[in-house]
Each structure stands twice: as C-alpha cells, then as structure tokens.
Amino acid sequence: MEAEFAWESLSVIFREPNWRSLIADQWVELSHLPDVEPEFDFAAMYELEKAGHYRTWVARKEGLMIGFIQWMFHKPFAYRGQLWALDCGHYIDCEHRDVHTAIAMWRGAEAALRAIGVTAIRAHDNEKRPLDPFFKRLGYEKVSSMYQRML
C-alpha cells in the first residue's frame, strides 16, 4: 500500500499511538546533542500552530503515522511580500523509508505549501544522514551551510 499524506494538527498527532517513538527515533538517529535529553515545548508548538506559523505534513500507511515534516512559516524582512516555509524537522520511520515514499512526501508537501501561498521553501540537511543528492534530485539548490558550537 502506498503512503498517504496530509496536513494534521498537533491535537491529532499527539493522539497517535506511535508519535513519541517517531520523535525519539528521529532524535536518536539525527541529534547533534546525543548527551542532552530533549525538552520539547509542546505548548509553544500549539501556540505557533494556532497563530498559523507552524504546521505538520504527515505520512501514513494503513492509518499508521510513518513520517512527518514540520514547517515554520515567516515573511522575510527583506522580502515582505513573500511567505517562506522552513523545514524544522523531517523524518520517515526506518521500516518505511524508501526513495519513493520520501519523494512523494516532499512533492506532496510542496503542492500543499504552494496551495497556502508559500513562495519559497528552505529545507535542511543533516550531516549525520546527508541528503544532498535527494534534495538536488527534487530541484533544490544549496544556498548555505549551518554550523553549531555549544557554549
């Protein structure tokens, strides 16, 4: 069975039986702070969602949530007539991860973002699981690199 994709509210996602394991798996696989326990601010996520600055694109197979892309929205100071979406977390469960599902999830998200007026997408890569060839295949161009230093 093919995966299905749609916007889902946090109130629906947090009723999903495996959402905690998806987030935990994402953190274990991709965190650059493996010795620091995450402290999710779910109240802030709800507030951002309510204000229209945050949405989640969800992948499901046979009703089970298998992946997601979290999006933050903003109007850049230098381009105030545009609405940009920033990928602030994406993941597909290892058991369901394949190129077809990943491409379908991102293409579906692009169409859904365009439908709500988004004019540019900023997606991020992770050095722990580089996706440069994947994003280039989708037509994205590398515009910057991000560096981190813990203080």
Helix fraction bin? 25-40%
How many strand segments?
A: 5
Shape: globular
Q: Describe the main β-sheet briefly.
A: 5 strands, mixed
Structural account:
- The chain is α+β, with helices and mostly antiparallel strands and 151 residues long.
- The protein has a single domain (4-137), classed as 3-Layer(aba) Sandwich (Aminopeptidase).
- 32% of the residues lie in helices and 24% in strands.
- It has 5 helices and 5 strands.
- It has helices at 10-13, 19-30, 42-50, 99-115, 132-137, and strands at residues 4-8, 54-61, 64-74, 84-92, 120-122.
- It has a 5-stranded mixed beta sheet, sandwiched between helices.
- Strand 2 (54-61) and strand 3 form a beta hairpin.
- The protein is globular and about 40 Å long.
- The protein starts with a strand and ends in a 14-residue tail after the last helix.
